[in-house]
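Worked example 4.2. Below are the chains of a multi-component assembly; read each line carefully before continuing.
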Amino acid sequence: MKIKLLILCCAASVLIGSPLPAQTQQVTVSATIASTLALTVNTNSVTFAFVAADYSATTGLAVKTNLAATTFGVTSNTSWKLTVQPGGPAFTYTPTGTQTDPVKSANQLAVRTGAGAYLPLAPAASLTVVTGNRGGSCTTGNTVPVDYQMSSNLATDPPGTYLLTLTYTLASQ
Amino acid sequence: MTSPTQFCRLTPLALALALAPLCALGNPPLPNLQLVTSVVSINVPATAFNKSSGVALVTVSRGLVLQVTADASWKLQLRAPDPVFSVTGQKGTPTQKSVSDMSLRNTSGGQLIIPSASFVQIGNGGNTHGPQELSFDVLLNATTADSPGLYTTTLELGFR
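Applying the procedure described above to all two chains together yields the following structure tokens:
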């Protein structure tokens, strides 16, 4: 009888016992955020139309500007810089008549952002146009209007069409 | 001294009672919580960011799957002990990303649960009559303010 009672007591403590404590488990969450760099532009063409009245009657020089001719949008989660490089050292030339190519240098085209000075394009190098911080294109500083300025000289630029391709590159810095 | 007759009479009861705890060792005590997923991996690709706002919302469907077994009422709670993600492999200026940028969506109710330092209830119920699966979509809100890198945190689940 003593044995019976002892066993029953043990069983009671196993079955009833103290309340089960809360269980805890841990879950690891890992998120990989990729680097993002995206550049958009509102137009791929900028046109200057030089007419006779644009030239100085005395010096034969003309300078024309095209404000906010292109607007770039930047989306980036790193600090970034926007550079521009001309497609070659000079404009390609299509004469109106039979004139020869004057090999008009790319540095006769200049760009700027904001109210700063115009920066002539470097014929064989990239030029930093602007730098900025992380954000979408709605972030201040990530929508970049670019002004263009082109120079012409009656003495060196015969009538015709001058074409230059610019390549803009967005990179993290 | 115990007689042979007495010994035989006690054996069935003694055996049954002695085996009870042993049987309990084979099956986990109720209530029980099992993790089907112990690691939630979220990938935020470059294409996920909205170009204008710079916001990316990524959802891992059934990112967190659990299995509960209970023979009485139970409740499941969750918390994020650390308020911010720990970051490795980060390029550029370090970012502090709050764990509240993450949320869980209950698939049945569509309820959004934002982890916090204190426990929040994410489920409850009664007798499950066997294992019952609970799954949650895991959502992460990222922006271009978050530098590229690997963000990790731990979620703690409490079940009783």
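Take a moment to check your reading of the output against the notes. The longest helix of chain B spans residues 4-26. Residues 22 and 136 of chain B are 35 Å apart (CA to CA).
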